[in-house]
């Protein structure tokens, strides 16, 4: 109702202003057209007098003057007067004379016509309203010339009130149309505001439901184009909030599970040791299990902390130019024992050596460690691990591929989610489920990409880095001096 009231007030104000302007302009135009018509009739009387030689009402042509006078009386309720230079005023017909006497009964004289007579006798036509005791009169006066001298003045008068009454008869349809326009506008505004407000009200209720924790609520995408776009955006936000809430709940469940497993193992073994149910000879074995579980727990907590810090942008990039190939070799050396124990064939193919990139060396090291660890975990004994790089324009592409179990299409979109472990996926029962999520976050901070590459067997992950510049080499002369 407030919106509709505002619209109506604006429309009524606009229509009122336009109507007032139209009324004033039309009234002025109507008055001017009345004056112009009266002057044209007065000029007709002047020409008739010049032809017939008018010398008073006794002329044989008097019927022509009376016809004009009677026509003006019928059409405009006006009457015609004539005055000589002696300012003696008389009417042009008997009926006009009677009308004149009735209208001017309170006046007793024609003193109010002095401005019109003065102007006309000076040779200037006159057209202006004159105020009498009985009201305002529209008055025109046209001189008749004879021998370069004003011989006679023809005057036509009509009551201004009668003219304005005639004008009001013509303006009433306009006022009626304005009123109908306002009424139609009210109906249209009611329909439009209802179509606008109803979806907004639904979105308000849906927003309140979201605030109360109901993330399944949706709103109908109805109304105008803008309202539909807003409803579509709202539903998209609701979907994202629902996914975020589900992800949060799943994250809490996964964290609880991942923390509970090692803690339960540690608690069970330690309680058995305290109870003496574990033989002394097996004590070392169980202690090693407890140490491994604590390491697993520590690794999980550190991964969570690192991921949380990166998501809060607390980890700042220390960008530098370094040799990516050399870094990859160092990571491989730390894994060489595992590679040899499992008899894994290692294939390394660098497109360019050395290959300098511009990135944070420590974080890229973590990406390489996570991806190579992930590949080694799922490469079968006697399998194959491939590390390749290529350069396209200003980007370096690094691919790490194993020939283990393939990843199903259903699991592929979720591999970079935190704690995601598919039942039959590449990551069954191994790892914390945070390694790929950390890799993705690191690459996003670098403004680069990491993604799964489709292969016939196994899994291949590829990431990009900005190509760097080789460090400047000292001049030959300087090297000689130093040596």
Please tell me about this protein's structure:
The protein is of the alpha+beta class. It has three domains: 2-168, Beta-Lactamase; 225-311, Orthogonal Bundle (Helix Hairpins), CATH 1.10.287.130; 319-467, Histidine kinase-like ATPase, C-terminal domain (Heat Shock Protein 90, 2-Layer Sandwich), CATH 3.30.565.10. 55% of the residues lie in helices and 18% in strands. It has helices at residues 2-52, 62-76, 94-103, 114-121, 160-211, 225-275, 283-311, 324-334, 336-341, 361-377, 435-445, 476-482, and strands at residues 78-84, 89-91, 126-132, 135-146, 149-159, 319-323, 345-349, 356-360, 384-392, 395-402, 450-453, 459-467. The strands form two sheets. Strands 6, 7, 8, 9, 10, 11 and 12 form a seven-stranded mixed sheet that branches. A hairpin with a 2-residue loop joins β4 (135-146) and β5. α5 (160-211) packs parallel to α6, α6 (225-275) runs antiparallel to α7 and α7 runs parallel beside α11 (435-445).
